[in-house]
Amino acid sequence: MQRESPQPAVLLELYRAMLLIRRFEERVYYLFLEGEIPGTLHQCQGQEAVAVGVCDALETSDWITSTHRPHGHALAKGVSPRAAMAELYGKETGCCRGRGGSMHLGDPDVGMLPAIAIVGGGNTVVTGLGLAFKLGRTGQVAACFFGEGATNEGAFHEGLNFAAVQRLPVVFVCENNLYGASTSWERVSLVPSVADRAGAYGVKGEAVDGMDVVAVRQAASAAIAAARGGEGPTLLECRTYRFVGHSRSDARGYRTREEEEEWKLSDPIVRLREQLLEDGIAEAALEAVGGEVDAVLDDAVEFARSSPDPDPAELLADAYA
Questions:
Q1: For the chain, which residues score pLDDT lower than 70?
Q2: What is residue 147's three-state secondary structure?
Q3: How far apart are CA 108 and CA 83, in angstroms?
Q4: CA gyration radius, the chain
Q5: What is the spatial distance between Cα 134 and Cα 182, in angstroms, rounded to a whole number?
Q6: Per the domain annotation, does 200 fall within a domain?
Q7: CA pair distance 163, 234, nearest whole angstrom
Q8: How far is the C-alpha of 208 from the C-alpha of 237, rounded, in Å?
Q9: Which helix (H) or strand (E) segment is 117 a member of?
Q10: From CA 187, how far away is CA 182, in angstroms rounded?
Q11: Tell me, what CATH number does 106's domain have?
Q12: What single-letter DSSP state applies at residue 107?
């Protein structure tokens, strides 16, 4: 299928969104090492094109579910950098009032359920969203992000089958970064392509270059249009790569540095930057975007640092057994 490239102004916004995620993750990495951010981190450097490409194709009223690696999805869907950063700091002003932390970012006001850290956990929850949208005839779509490791969980198969049979307005987005934690995909599946699994449930499956934000956006737009039009779900396999370890304690001993360097040649931000320069966008304009992103993150960090901690007296508020 021949692809029409979006206008330079659209590409510039995609670039801005990916750069915000990348620099957010870089900033958070050092803040964690300095002891300012508690808990652990699961970061997404390298995978920005998937979050941005899919979320840019969604309407504001559409919803997403996410995973234990949710920072990029949250920022791409519209969670403010202030609210996201404050949540990582465990502050009352965080998007989940400091109760969720890194693995549970989300904000219903922008159409993102708080992320579900259980592998495959969102794959059945998203069918509930899709069923509600269908029964309510709202015209909304729900997108579900998950890794390739989740496709060996029962929830993946149950969720996809139910959504298929009911023709729910759901898009299943697999971020295939080759490794479920430290286990390579080829060691746990004889099916080389996740997208091929769609055929077992009678729905469309498509593999796309997850390091190309324009390709992801195009594939997501078609899948979202089909879902909104009553055609049921699509399984998108976005082949991507995380430049960092599974979590902050991961030394990445299970993959070679040569492999990492090869994938970095496909860095989605660098690729789009080069395309923008070819399209006539001035280097100064791209540098200005970088400066704006840094200013936003400076503000987010200062906001998080100065925000109040949650009141211990409200520890059990909104908690249900």
A1: 1-4, 321
A2: strand
A3: 13
A4: 19
A5: 38
A6: yes
A7: 10
A8: 6
A9: none
A10: 11
A11: 3.40.50.970
A12: B
Phi and psi at residue 60, in whole multiples of 5°? -60, -35
Range of the structural domain that residue 156 is part of: 24-302
- Half-sphere exposure (CA, 13 Å, Cβ side) for 244? 18
The CA-based angle 109-112-118, given to 5 degrees, is 145
Tokens representing 216? 């992801």
Distance CA 148, CA 239 (A): 9
Q: How far is CA 254 from the centre of its chain?
A: 24
d(CA 42, CA 48): 14
Q: Would you say residue 131 lies in a domain? A: yes
pLDDT at position 297 is 98
pLDDT of residue 244: 93
- The pLDDT, as a whole number, for residue 1 is 46
Query: What is the pLDDT, as a whole number, of residue 197?
Result: 97
Residue 19 lies in a domain: no
DSSP element (H, E) containing 191: none
How many structural domains compose the chain? 1
For the residues of 6-64, what is the DSSP string, one character each? PPHHHHHHHHHHHHHHHHHHHHHHHHHHTT-S-S-----TT-HHHHHHHHHHS-TT-EE
pLDDT digits (tens, 9 = 90+) for 85-124: 999 999 999 999 999 999 999 999 999 999 999 999 999 9
- Within a domain: residue 315? no
HSE, CB side, 13 Å, CA atoms: give it for residue 295: 7
Vertex 218, ends 216 and 223: CA angle to 5°?
90
